[in-house]
Amino acid sequence: MGSGPDRVVSLKNVYARYVTSEKWIVEDVSLEASRGEMIVLMGPSGCGKSTLLNVIAGLLPGVIPGVVEGEVIIDGINPVKQGYRALRGRVGIVYQNPEIQIITRSVYEELAMAPENLGLPKEEVISRVEWALDALGLRGYENKDPQTLSGGEKQLVAIASVLTMKPKLLLLDEPTSMLDHTGTRLVLKAITTLKEEYGLTIIAAEHRVEWAVDVADRVYLMADGRIVLGGTPDDVFSDIAAVTKLGVRPPGVTEVAYELYRRGINVGFPVRLRNFEKFLGVSHD
Ligand SMILES: Nc1ncnc2c1ncn2[C@@H]1O[C@H](COP(=O)(O)OP(=O)(O)O)[C@@H](O)[C@H]1O
Ligand SMILES: [Mg+2]
């Protein structure tokens, strides 16, 4: 990987803390993401995932008082040196709870707000809203009051409302952790579409390992502010002992394969069900 125009995120030896904390919350983190890549951050609660996302979004130290050291380059901008406003329109961030992000009374208004705030001409605002409605499968929702929608639909609206900025980078902080099963499926499907059809660069903190291994190009496991294991989902999760030691549950299929291995049956260490199906000869594709 070079540092060409396709590099969207480059962190080098980044340390971060809040003014209120004495110790570093993010310690010596280096990571890169190129256009169209999806990275999933995992690790136990409190390990620093949200803080790292805040640094990447320029919110720490731009909005939340704190200290960030090391090099942070997002879409060619260093938000620590140039100020987080230099990132305006380039990064969208969506949190767990869609309720706190949605502020208007119609889906259309909600989606139009960001491009209007960017001062874009009316036609451009309309075309971006339509694009986001299509990208997230929200056609027909334009005139609905977001408050009447299901949790999953609200989260789609929250994602769509940052997409209308046409960000290079979408950050998702546990986007499904407050949703029920149906809502989770809806949102995960939409995110997969954004990656696969729209080539968006996405960094998500997410604890649903089966989904993470399915969509992530790379997974980073964090512990106590540091990235302790990183690579492709296969690289990371086939080392089941290391993953388990970090308090992250490996994919169910990997656990099964490991149990079989302990009983003397070697099926390899698949991290996705479809790889195991191939091994069993019951693959549908
Ligand atoms: N605004 C804040 N001010 C001070 N400390 C914080 C703040 N937000 C989070 N922390 C602390 O930083 C550590 C990492 O938290 P966080 O980044 O939210 O972890 P995660 O998202 O992995 O659960 C925790 O110890 C947490 O208490
Ligand atoms: Mg968090």
UniProtKB/TrEMBL annotation:
Q: Name one GO molecular function term.
A: ATP binding
Note the topology in the membrane.
Answer: Peripheral membrane protein
ABC transporter domain residues are 9-249
Q: Give the UniProt subcellular location, in the record's own words.
A: Cell membrane
PROSITE patterns for the chain: ABC_TRANSPORTER_1 (PS00211), ABC_TRANSPORTER_2 (PS50893)
Q: Which UniProt keywords apply?
A: ATP-binding, Cell membrane, Membrane, Nucleotide-binding, Translocase, Transport
Its primary localisation, in coarse terms, equals: membrane
The superkingdom of the source organism is Archaea
Show the GO cellular component annotation of the record. ATP-binding cassette (ABC) transporter complex
| Function, as annotated | Probably part of an ABC transporter complex. Responsible for energy coupling to the transport system.
Of which family is this protein a member? Belongs to the ABC transporter superfamily.
Q: Please give the name of this protein.
A: ABC transporter ATP-binding protein
Organism name: Infirmifilum lucidum
